[in-house]
User: Which sequence fits this backbone?
């Protein structure tokens, strides 16, 4: 096996290199994080871009075994935020110079929902004079729907593959047409075809997931030339079927540690993509997102959902900031970023540099 410094200086990591890096500890781990920070500084700089997160609705037609807002969780009250409150949240983000928002929700594919999203995108563009960037995270849709939303003014889309291993994917989803692995891949390709900057990602520390699976996940992200990534630790939710597998889980700290390694290795592999420091990190460690930024992430998604609804968007347990309002989160961003030597790219879209310079995309 090569010494860590040799692996870190390679221009192209192999699967074996990645497996080795995912298992480093002690001094070697420090070297890994140092390298990913250096690469971030070189290719991205120390700027962190903001996406105000609007958790638009927890109504979902799907039944993913891990998710607290899955259709069959009868214990969960359902909400969809009224238009004027969505627009108010977007306005808040705009006025506070966030540059962009993300609209995320449970999956719906009915015409009423599709048209509603189109309407909201157009209204948000209008209220910000076209200036607010819009990312969507609204699940699997048809190519036509993706195109409609892109043409309305959204320009980035996040759809996690969750795991790139088909067998594991099938174990954590029901076995039906709505939760089909191949369809998920097709959706990713359609998102790109529609014109969006494409984001995907995986959950880290799922029951039954191996280090090899995680290495394959990173290879998958490189292979499909992803523009942006959101990866986070899996966090159990007691009202979901996957909770039965809880005895197979690593500790939360271990899942967090693995997530940091995944972020730093990905930064070494894909030097100028956007990598988000996801909310789930903060659920395990109050400084989780800051640490992720130190190790290579460059996107922060402060929650701008009206406080009233946050408690009901529980994908997993112990979700942070659920009792706060946007203002509470806003005051701490500069301080928190300053603590780790980062600055905030206010009023900027902060698009993926990789996307902007990459013209040879896979478009099949
Ligand atoms: N319905 C959309 C967007 C909302 S879910 C979709 O599924 O794409 C957004 C993400 O939350 C999912 O992609 C999944 O990776 C993550 N998530 C769901 N349940 C989770 C859990 N228990 N722990 C960690 N992340 C979870
Ligand atoms: Fe619905 Fe997304 Fe949760 Fe799956 S992960 S149940 S699609 S909200």
Assistant:
């Amino acid at each position: 096996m090569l010494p860590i410094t040799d692996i870190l200086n390679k221009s192209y990591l192999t699967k074996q290199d990645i497996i080795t890096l995912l298992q480093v500890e002690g001094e070697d781990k420090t070297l890994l994080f140092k390298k990913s920070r250096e690469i971030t500084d070189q290719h991205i700089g120390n700027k962190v871009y903001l996406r105000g997160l609007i958790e638009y609705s927890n109504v979902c037609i799907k039944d993913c075994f891990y998710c607290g807002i899955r259709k069959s969780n009868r214990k969960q009250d359902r909400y969809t935020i009224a238009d004027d409150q969505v627009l108010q949240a977007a306005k808040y983000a705009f006025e506070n110079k966030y540059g962009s928002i993300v609209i995320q929700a449970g999956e719906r594919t009915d015409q009423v929902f599709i048209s509603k999203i189109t309407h909201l995108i157009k209204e948000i563009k209008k209220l910000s004079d076209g200036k607010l960037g819009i990312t969507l995270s609204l699940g699997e849709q048809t190519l036509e729907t993706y195109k409609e939303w892109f043409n309305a003014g959204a320009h980035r889309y996040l759809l996690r593959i969750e795991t790139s291993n088909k067998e594991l994917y099938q174990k954590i989803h029901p076995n039906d047409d709505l939760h089909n692995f191949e369809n998920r891949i097709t959706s990713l390709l359609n998102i790109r075809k529609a014109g969006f900057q494409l984001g995907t990602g995986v959950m880290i520390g799922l029951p039954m997931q191996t280090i090899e699976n995680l290495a394959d996940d990173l290879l998958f992200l490189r292979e499909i030339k992803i523009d942006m990534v959101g990866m986070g630790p899996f966090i159990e939710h007691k009202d979901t079927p996957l909770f039965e597998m809880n005895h197979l889980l690593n500790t939360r700290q271990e899942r967090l540690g693995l997530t940091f390694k995944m972020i730093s290795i990905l930064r070494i592999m894909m030097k100028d993509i956007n990598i988000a420091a996801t909310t789930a990190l903060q659920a395990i460690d109050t400084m989780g997102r800051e640490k992720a930024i130190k190790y290579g992430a460059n996107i922060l998604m402060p929650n701008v959902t009206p406080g009233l609804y946050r408690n009901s968007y529980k994908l997993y347990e112990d979700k942070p900031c659920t009792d706060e309002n946007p203002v509470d989160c806003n005051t701490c961003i500069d301080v928190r970023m300053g603590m780790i030597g980062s600055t905030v790219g206010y009023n900027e879209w902060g698009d993926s540099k990789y996307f902007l310079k990459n013209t040879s995309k896979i478009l099949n």
Observations:
- The chain has a mean pLDDT of 94.
- The pocket of iron/sulfur cluster (ligand 2) is lined by residues 60, 62, 64, 67, 69-70, 106-107, 139, 315 (CB under 6 Å).
- The domain at 27-363 is CATH 3.20.20.70 (TIM Barrel).
